[in-house]
Amino acid sequence: CELTASTKSYTFQVDEEDDSEHILALSVVCLTDGAKDECNVVEVIGRNHENQEIAVPVANLKLSCQPLLSLDNFKLQPPVTFRLAAGSGPVHLAGWHRIVHREDASFEEDDDLSEEENEELPPIKPAKK
C-alpha cells in the first residue's frame, strides 16, 4: 500500500468467517517519488493478547538520512492498520500475505516414514578409553 497526505491509513483485514490462518509480513517501508525531506512516521495499529487496540511506530523515514527501512518480514496478525502518523509521504509499504488452510496444516502419515521408524538400529557400543 501507499500512505500519503490524502490517504493517511490503510487497513488489511480478512473475512472473519474464514477459518484459515492468515499471516501478513511487512518487508520494506520506503519513501517514494515526491517525498519531502521531513520525518515520516509509520505506525501499525493492531490488537494485543487482551484484544486491546495498540499502536506501535515501526518506521521513521527521512529522505536525506533514511529513505528506506527493511523490516525483515515483520509478521502481523490481521486485521491490522498502517497509518502515517507524521509527515506527508508518499510512503510505500511492501510485504506478503500467506494463507494456511486448516487441512493443509494437518498431514497424513507416509508409509515410507513408518517403515523407517520400524527399522532396527544396531546397538550403541561404548567408547574406547
Automatic annotation (TrEMBL):
Domain Nucleoplasmin core: 1-98
Entry keyword annotation includes Nucleus: yes
Biased composition (Acidic residues): 106-120
One Pfam family in the UniProt entry: Nucleoplasmin
Record keywords: Acetylation, Chaperone, Methylation, Nucleus, Phosphoprotein
Any single biological process term in GO: chromatin remodeling
Cellular compartments annotated: Nucleus, Nucleolus
UniProt-annotated stretches for the region Disordered: 106-129
Function as written in the Swiss-Prot or TrEMBL entry: Plays a role in the regulation of diverse cellular processes such as ribosome biogenesis, chromatin remodeling or protein chaperoning. Modulates the histone chaperone function and the RNA-binding activity of nucleolar phosphoprotein B23/NPM. Efficiently mediates chromatin remodeling when included in a pentamer containing NPM3 and NPM.
Family recorded in the similarity comment: Belongs to the nucleoplasmin family.
Listed name of the protein: Nucleoplasmin-3
Organism, as annotated: Syrrhaptes paradoxus (Pallas's sandgrouse)
